[in-house]
Amino acid sequence: MKREEIIEKLREILAAAGDGTVPDLSEDSNLATDLGLSSVSMLYMVIAIEEEFGIRFDDVGASDFVLLSDVVDYIEEKLK
Asked: Structure pTM?
């Protein structure tokens, strides 16, 4: 799966987690400051990502993901 496809899926997940609007995303988007994700939103996003991509977030914490690119990198690695 290409990075652009992963980002598009993340856009859908974030829209569902928020008010339904599709956020503008770039790999440099900061999860907390740019996207406004709280710890609860992050938890929802992790669960949705696990279901969408069929992966598990093992041995990582919320502090391991600052930018959207960190999440995309993790998903890419898990999908290999």
From this structure: 0.88
